[in-house]
Amino acid sequence: MVRVAVAGASGYMGAELLRLLCVHPNITLTGVTSDRLAGEALTKAYPHLRGLSELRFHDLDAEWLASVADVVFLALPHMESQKAVPILRRHGRRAIDLSADYRLRDPNDYVTWYKAPHIDLSGLGEAVYGLAELHRKAIAQAALVATPGCYPAGAILATAPLFRAGLARLDGVVIDGKSGVTGAGAQGRRIDPMYLYTEANENVQAYGMASHRHTPEIEQELGALAGAPLRVAFTPHLVPLNRGLFTTASVPVTSAVTTTRLLDVYREFYAGEPFVRVLDEGERPTTRAVVGSNYCDVTVVADPRTNRAVCVSAIDNLGKGGAANGIQNLNVMLGWGERTGLEAPPVYP
Question: pTM to 2 decimals?
Fold first, then answer.
């Protein structure tokens, strides 16, 4: 059994990691950290895990994590993982990071978007972007994997086939994302009016307009697929859901194309992918159909009037948008079947 630990296990993403890891057949959960909950029983914070773990939270200590685990998941605030990863790598441990710390290839992007220089340039150069649908072979050889952000996961999976096939123009790409409140991460546990029930319920809010930190991540991966730099107009929204993320992208196309042709391109691109479901013409993705899972439902429709493709995806922001995708990366890194520990279907209703 492979020993696995989770650093930063007191947030929503950490909680979802624990739920999945507790029942993964090939691993033993050997450590969890939270400075806020250090010393407390795991099941006191998460009573839904009673009977699945007897662990207690430890304070964040990378040396300790390296001593108790072979693989460490990091669900820490942005700019914190880069302090722990060099220690883990020095001890030969593999790391799967769920923060933004190793997603962007250009270190200058961290100064621009995160207002701080990156302090682990060696690790940044080593890290592999953890979206198996694009980088499976590299993930299989990686010791450090950067799991995508929730919005980029939804946006990239919604549009990747167009850019790979050369059907997308590189100007005028517009992406709209709508996420449940758990997408706020640890902020969702603080007294912030934006996330209070009375503010979030029966309400939709745009935020991070023209400035959201996931923008360069989307541009990086779609630009790599297209073979040229691009810019996207990305706007995220908070919607009154516990979990779920819905993406609509309007992408200019290079030539007239039908919905049937576009769907054929998508089916070919995602053929054999265990967690991407390309829907038939006329079917619509919904967040309800993917919640609690690692699935991504996608579709695309041609809009000949505007010479655009309308691309839609639905994921669970804590699933394919984070923790479950991290488990998929673990499976790829260790040569296990990608569905291992992720076989459960989405939760319904």
Answer: 0.97
